[in-house]
Structures are given as C-alpha cells and as structure tokens.
Design brief:
The complex is a heterodimer of chains A (295) and B (161). Chain A is 37% helix and 24% strand. Chain A is α+β, with helices and mostly antiparallel strands and 295 residues long. In chain A, α2 links the parallel β2 and β3. In chain A, α11 runs antiparallel to α12. The longest helix of chain A has 21 residues. The termini of chain A are far apart. With 161 residues, chain B is of the alpha+beta class. Chain B has 5 helices and 5 strands, in the order ββαβββαααα. A 5-stranded mixed sheet of chain B has the order 2-1-5-3-4, sandwiched between helices. Chain B starts with a strand and ends with a helix. Classes of the chains: A alpha+beta (295), B alpha+beta (161).
C-alpha cells in the first residue's frame, strides 16, 4: 500500500464534518476530490494522520445564481464545466476549467478542493483573484467570508484556520462593458502550464479602460496580480501600444518567476508577456459592441 | 495496522463486499481483492491514465482514489466491456482491427476513457479524439493507430459498421 496509515472519517453532514475538524484541527486533512492529496500521499510527501472525506455530504455540492454565482465546495470541476449558469454568469471560470488537467481528473477534482489547495500553478485560484471571488469558511463556531485577496496567503497556504472548512466559493456575476479571457501555455494539454493568466478588461462610457485585472499562474508563490501593469492601463483607450506596455510591465516588473522544469524564468516572462497581449485583445473583442459604445 | 472498514460495491454488475484498510487504493482493490487485473497501474499518481475505470459511468483514475470511497458505487472495468467471452465490444473490435495497441499496457485505460466519450460524442473529429485521450499516455504507438481505432469505433458504435 502506498499511503501511510491514517484514520478515516466519512461524515454525512457538514455539522459532523465541522465537529471532526474542531476536534482534530490541523491533524485532520479534508479529502475533497483527492486529485492532489492522494498523489501526495502515494509519494508519502503528505502523511496526514486523519482524513475527513467530504464526499458524502450532499449539501456541499451545487451551483446557484442569485445576485452572485455560488458554487458548493464539493462541486466537481466537470459539473461546473458543463453548467449553464457558470457559462452565462462567469465566462472566465467557464473558459478556465477545461485547462485543469484532464477529464478524468475533473470528474473527481472539486472547485473548493483546488481553491483550498492553493497551488500556484492551478487555474482556479487565478480565476478567484481575477474575479474578486470570496470564500465561505465554516467552523463549529460560525462562518465568515474571506475575500480572494486575503484568502491566498502563500505557497499552498490559505487564510483558513485549523478548525475551518471551505464550503463554498462565491463569484460576482459578469458585468456590462467588461470582457474576460483565460489563456495558458502548457507543453501538453492538461499539464501544469508554463505560463498563463486571467484577464479582465472593463471600459467606461467613453471607451477608456475603467478597470482591469491581470492575474498570472505559476510565476509566484500564489496567484500573482500584476498591479503596476494594470495601473498603466487604467484611463487609457485600448490600443496595441497600451496592451504592449501593460504586457511589458507585467512580465518584467510585476513578476519574479522562479522557472520550473519546462521553462526558465526568462521564458516564463516571455510567454506571460505574449499571453498578456493576446488575452487583453481577446477580452476587448468580447466586450459587447453596443454596450462598449453606449453613452 | 489501522482500522478496517466494511465496503460494498459493484464491479461490472457483480457485488463485492470486503473489509479494507482505508489506505488501500481503489486500483489495488480492483486488482488484488476483486482479482480483476485488466485495470493497469502505471504511474500511481494520476498522470498516465492506465488505471482509468468508470465510477458511476464517469471515467476516473482508480490509483488516486481510496477503495473506501467507492463504497456504494458502481464501477466498470475493462473486463465489463465485452458481453461474453466470444464477442468483443465494438470499441475493442475497432482497436483490434485498426491495430490500436502494441504492448497493450495503456489500452484498458484508453478504452475506459473512450467508452463514455464516444457514447456522448458519436461523430468526433481526429482533433477531438486526441483531446479526449490527452490524459492517457502510450509509449509505443505514437497514438496514430489509437486515434484511427477510436474513429473506427465511433462508426461501429453508432452505425453498426
């Protein structure tokens, strides 16, 4: 047997799961889809003494739109991928999900699991930060919402406390005069990307950029936001020059990539820069024409 | 020795009941406890796809799932494809006819990935087939004959060709 021994609990209610988490704290790892945790356990990189399997808690699954799009933490990535509400209200998320590994992985992998794992190479944390999603953390003593900017606290680290579980992720609905794009480059579809980003571009009534977000994967210890590049864009009319300048700042100033097995830091900067221009153009092209010109 | 758990699950329509340690991987349960060695174990960390099986009709990696997690679920392995010993499933026939395998190690995982895919996508393009099997590694064929076999299987499964 590959994994080291552990004690296993499969509670059938959130209440029971929270009680276990309160009792065992950091000793107990929640098991969501297990598509990162079980490989780590097979390598014995992770040796949790207790697993709390959340798969038998139906209330943690489901997607609903009511002023915002809320996805239950244990919703499978493949379910969100095929969901009409996700496609309609969060086109960025809809575009990003097929980039997560392979269909077999997305059938088990969950939205909340990937977000709580906070892998810097993962797609979902990048989307959460770009859309300013917020995470619902629940414990026996209550619940709180954590903004994406606070949630991702570093390498595989989140703002969740030892007694808390991430039970839902709430995404703001797509807005008017706003375009979204997700792009990444991997050696082989489904592999960890060498570079990639989520871009959000919003225009004001005069067609100038009123707000933008550029968030990158795999170039930092978490989803990396290019704040200086965004500052260079805001207030300007979209143009090739403005996009090129933002790409230059994002890839040369905002990020300090470490490089990885498949890409040197310079190559990651190059890819990130090229993808930034493409993503901004794509986001711009997706802003409804009529809305963009409306007075 | 950690505690054991009692699980009941169905594989290819047959019910199994066992006492298992929670750390027993589903792939190892299928091979060693149920004795169905058609499911292959390659990388054991979810990359190669050789261990792909159907869990309630959906393809999943059995090497990164615990056997206890399959309690109460219905599994299908490559042994569940053919209706009997004399008649191959059209998908298997297509792999035979189009030489969709060489050593055969990756084949069970590829078949179990393609079965639900071709049921949902009766007329895929070559590009779509390559995309569908992107999570399955083959070190022999260079994939060309696997893709040919999948396209042939699509015809067989839907036109009875």
């Amino acid at each position: 047997m590959k994994p080291a021994p552990f004690k296993y609990f499969a509670p059938d209610s959130l209440e029971a799961a929270l009680e276990l988490k309160a009792q065992h704290g950091d000793e107990a790892k929640p098991l969501a889809g297990g598509q990162s945790l079980i490989p780590a356990m097979n390598f014995r990189v992770a040796q949790p003494s207790i697993l709390i399997d959340l798969n038998r808690i139906p209330e943690l699954r489901g997607i609903r739109a009511n002023g915002a799009l809320t996805i239950g933490g244990m919703t499978a990535q493949s379910a969100a991928e095929k969901d009409a509400l996700v496609a309609q209200h969060t086109p960025l998320l809809h575009e990003a999900i097929p980039n997560i590994a392979h269909p077999q992985i997305r059938n088990r992998g969950t939205i909340g699991g990937s977000v709580a794992h906070a892998d810097p190479a993962a797609e979902l944390p990048v989307v959460c930060l770009a859309l300013r999603a917020r995470m619902l953390a629940q414990s026996q003593s209550g619940q709180r919402w954590i903004e994406a900017q606070q949630f991702f606290a570093g390498l595989f680290t989140t703002a969740l406390s030892a007694d808390e579980l991430l039970t839902a992720v709430e995404f703001p609905l797509a807005r008017e005069r706003t375009g979204y794009a997700f792009l990444e480059v991997a050696r082989r579809h489904g592999d960890y990307a060498m570079a990639g980003l989520a871009a959000v571009l919003a225009l004001d009534e005069n067609g100038a950029c009123s707000e933008a977000r550029l968030v990158y994967l795999n170039v930092g210890d978490g989803p990396l936001e290019a704040t200086q590049a965004v500052a260079s864009l805001v207030g300007k009319k979209p143009s090739e020059e403005a996009f090129a300048e933002a790409a230059q700042i994002a890839s040369q100033v905002d990020m300090q990539p470490f490089g990885n097995l498949h890409a040197t830091p310079d190559f990651q900067r190059h890819l990130s820069g090229v993808l930034t221009q493409r993503a901004l153009n794509l986001a711009l092209s997706r802003i409804p024409k009529k809305a963009a010109k409306a007075k | 020795m950690s505690d054991t758990y009692s699980i009941t699950l169905s594989i290819n329509g047959k019910s199994y009941q066992s006492e298992v340690e929670p750390r027993l991987l589903l792939a190892d349960y299928i091979r060693q406890v149920a004795g169905l060695s058609g499911t292959h174990v390659g990388c054991e960390h979810g990359v190669c796809g050789a261990c792909t099986i159907l869990l309630d009709g959906q393809p999943v990696r059995s090497c990164i799932m615990l056997a206890v997690q399959a309690d109460g679920h219905e599994l299908t392995t490559v042994e569940g494809l053919a209706s009997d010993e004399k008649n191959l499933h059209p998908l298997q026939e297509a792999f035979w006819e189009a030489h969709g395998l060489q050593c055969g190690f990756c084949t069970p995982g590829i078949l179990m990935t393609l079965l639900p895919y071709l049921q949902e996508h009766p007329n895929p393009t070559e590009h779509e087939v390559r995309e569908a099997i992107s999570g399955n590694l083959c070190r022999c064929t260079g994939y060309q004959h696997i893709v040919d076999a999948a396209l042939l299987a699509a015809k067989k499964m839907h036109n009875g060709a």
